[in-house]
Design a protein that fits this description.
Blueprint lengths: L27 H18 L8 H10 L14 H6 L6 H6 L12 H16 L3 H7 L1 H8 L2 H11 L2 H11 L15 H4 L19 E3 L3 H6 L2 H12 L4 E3 L8 H6 L2 H20 L3 E3 L3 H14 L4 H7 L2 E2 L1 H10 L12 E6 L2 H4 L6 H6 L5 E6 L16 H18 L3 E4 L2 H11 L8 H9 L2
Length: about 450
């Protein structure tokens, strides 16, 4: 007797490589056939309704159709579902019971990525989306000292923001980051360390920092705080020789060729540092995830990509690996009191556990409350005119909890998520990155 299909799976999720060079990948008929298959499975399950707006959009389309099934949804409306997916991967990792190795083989994020790639190849993207995802170019331009002041002032001016909304489609009330002319890479260019590397476990004991676009141009303290904390733990730190955007913003547009172009710059530079005995650490979860997961799935046969995957770390992951071997400095001088910590989506899907929480819990007289919900930001989704209000709705449970709890500190590993939470709380408080909190606890 043939076995009936399993209702779900208790096995660990596994990911198939992204076959993005094949002709079928960009075949629209094949794509829509797969979209219909997966949408029908999602419609029958609906476990992911509380995540992003992609799923409520799908379920509303189904429920409002004549048949109340996926076959009643107009094919052109399939794109409305795709547009709301920002590839957080939480559905794949935390909700869906039908991911591979289940026979139904549902990989919703990568199906959405495929759809975005098909749409990008066919139509391109809006000028706004091209600008927002060109983080290096915008950062370099906005970081010029005179331009820097103009841009930052304009971004705080309500009249200019209304103009920006009408001309470019950037929501007038969305938080946009500041730009700095004294970038992290400038500040750390001549950094030297007197510490001797102490290899232990998976760590070599010396770290090359991939500053990231955001950490370089928008919030240089992310990179400088990282260096201060690691040096305080007697870990020698240097900068990666050269870097450009990890490619995540272009991935979210479906511009896979731009992702490959970025990879061709970054991977040789990172692999060179690894060959010289350095581990790689980056302060932005999305950037670490790009090298740990997305690039290895796009380039499964590239040994250099695999090398970087195996030697890049989240800062708190690295410090806790050292703590496991007794090499974390636990001489904390200042308690933090009540802290609400938002675990970023792209950190959660790295499958390393809540290392930030675990480390902050080591600080005496400090209580960490964890929120494991999406902030709805995604780097660009929250600033777009058509999506901003929805992003704030997604974030509402988080900032409402922050407002009601009135903690001594709150923040997220993702600085953009932290800014989104502070914007929603709207009570004069500011999010603090966990690296800044750790510095405060150390008294450095």
């Amino acid at each position: 007797m043939a076995e009936s299909p399993r209702e779900g799976s208790l096995e660990a999720p596994t990911r198939h490589p992204l076959d993005w060079h094949s002709e079928d990948f960009y075949n629209e008929d094949s794509l829509f056939k797969e979209l219909e298959r997966v949408y029908d499975i999602c419609h029958g399950c609906r476990r992911c309704v509380s995540l992003c707006n992609s799923f409520p959009t799908l379920f509303d389309l189904v429920d409002e159709s004549d048949t109340m099934e996926v076959d009643g949804v107009a094919k052109e409306d399939y794109w409305k579902v795709v547009d709301h997916c920002y590839l957080c991967d939480l559905c794949y990792l935390t909700k869906c019971p039908y991911v591979p190795p289940h026979e139904w083989n549902v990989d919703y994020p990568h199906l959405m990525l495929r759809a975005k790639a098909v749409k990008f190849k066919k139509e391109g993207v809006k000028s706004r989306d091209k600008i927002l995802s060109s983080t290096d170019a915008v950062g370099k331009l906005a970081g010029i000292p005179v331009v820097n002041g103009i841009v930052n002032t304009a971004n705080k001016n309500s009249a200019m923001r209304k103009t920006l909304e009408s001309t470019l489609g950037v929501h007038h009330n969305a938080v946009v980051p500041e730009y700095h002319s004294n970038t992290a890479r400038k500040q750390l260019k001549n950094h030297t360390s007197s510490h001797e590397a102490k290899p232990v476990g998976r760590t070599t004991g010396k770290v090359a920092v991939f500053a990231t676009c955001y950490g370089n141009y928008n919030q240089p303290t992310l990179a400088t705080d990282l260096v201060d904390v690691f040096e305080h733990n007697q870990i020698p730190v240097t900068l990666v020789d050269k870097e450009q955007c990890c490619g995540m913003p272009k991935l979210e547009l479906g511009d896979l060729q731009a992702v490959e172009d970025a990879k061709n710059v970054n991977i040789p530079a990172l692999a060179k540092m690894i060959d010289a005995g350095w581990d790689i650490v980056a302060p932005i979860p999305s950037c670490v995830l790009m090298f740990k997961q997305e690039l290895p799935l796009m380039f499964p046969d590239d040994s250099e990509v695999a090398k970087v995957r195996d030697h890049i770390f989240d800062p708190f992951e690295y410090l806790m690996l050292r703590h496991k071997e007794g090499l974390l400095n636990t001489e904390f001088k200042n308690p933090l009191g009540e802290v609400i910590y938002h675990a970023a989506c792209h950190l959660r899907v790295q499958k390393i556990g809540l290392k930030t929480r675990d480390l902050l819990n080591l600080i005496p007289d400090t209580n960490i409350g964890v929120i494991e919900r999406c902030s709805g930001h995604d780097g660009t989704y929250a600033v777009k005119k058509e999506f901003h209000d929805i992003s704030m709705k997604i974030c509402r449970p988080i900032f409402n909890k922050v407002k009601s709890a009135e903690p001594d500190h709150y923040g997220s590993d993702c600085p953009m998520a932290g800014a989104q939470i502070a914007h929603g709380a709207d009570n004069g408080t500011q999010a603090e990155h966990p690296l800044a909190l750790l510095k405060k606890a150390y008294g450095i």
